[in-house]
Structures are given as structure tokens and as C-alpha cells.
Amino acid sequence: MTGSLWSMIMKEFDNEMGKQKRKVLLIVDNAACHKVNGLNVENVKITFLPPNTTSLLQPLDQGIIHCFKVYFRQIMVRKQILAIENGLSIKQFITSISILDALNFIKRAWWLVKSDTIRNCFQKAGFQVEDISFDHIEEIVDVPIEIHNFDEYVACDSALIALVFLLMRK
């Protein structure tokens, strides 16, 4: 993520919220790219989480990311097993996955995350949650190389910083 990319995303999001006649509060972490001088948005108020509190206050870190990764990696393992059953080697399987395949796996994994999971994670992070839709979060993840068990596979990139975009689902 860069400051210029963040600015572009925020301007597009602001325009979309304006078209829908909505005013929104966007709570983001303190990543340097989010602190853009001169970002002029009318329909989006941006509030920053306090420094060094992301793991405690960000709903995604309360279980949403983990849940998404479990589904994503289950999909990958199932596809891998199917490929092996069809006579492909692991290397052949990995090289057969296109960017479109990966995006479809990500989309499917995201749709498997239940609204209740998202709602519970927001509550755990201290948000007052009523009848709000939380169908707007997408994460981009890396696939590990050396894994010894499924739990390790799910958590393999837990130390990495995830790029998180709040996007409107259609």
C-alpha cells in the first residue's frame, strides 16, 4: 500500500458514499500510508486506531483473518488433494494455479466467513454492534512453503502485516 494508492481508494470510496447519500466513519490502523496530507473527502471520516493497539482493537485481528485463512487453506488443501488424485505432483499443482484461480479461492473463502463471526469479532474489539452488515472486508494473503500441520498452515503468516481493504460487496 502506498499513500497515493490509499488516496485513490479513499476518493473512490468517498464518491461512492456520496452517490449513496451516506456518511461513514472509517477506522484504520496507523500505517504511514494511511496518513495522507491534503486528502479531501466529504462523505468519509477517517479515524486512526491508537498506536500499537491494532492486535487488541482491530476486529480483523480478533478472529476474522484467522477464520478467512482457515477457509482459504482448506480450499487449497482440497484442490491439492484432488490434483494428486488426478496424478499431478505438488509442483505441477502449484504451477497450474492461475491468478484467476487464486482470486476465486480468496473470494470463496471470504464468502464462507459467517456474518456472525464478523459481528462477534467486532463486539470482541469493543464495537457496539446492532443490525449492521459486515460484508465489506477482503484480505490478501501469502501461501507458505514449509508446513508441518494444518494449524501451522493456517497461522503461517500471522507475523506478517496484512493489507486490508474495506470494499463494498455487490
Automatic annotation (TrEMBL):
Residues 5-122 form the DDE-1 domain. It comes from the Eukaryota. Pfam families: DDE_1. Transmembrane segments: none annotated. InterPro entries: CenT-Element_Derived, DDE_SF_endonuclease_dom. This is Tigger transposable element-derived protein 6-like.
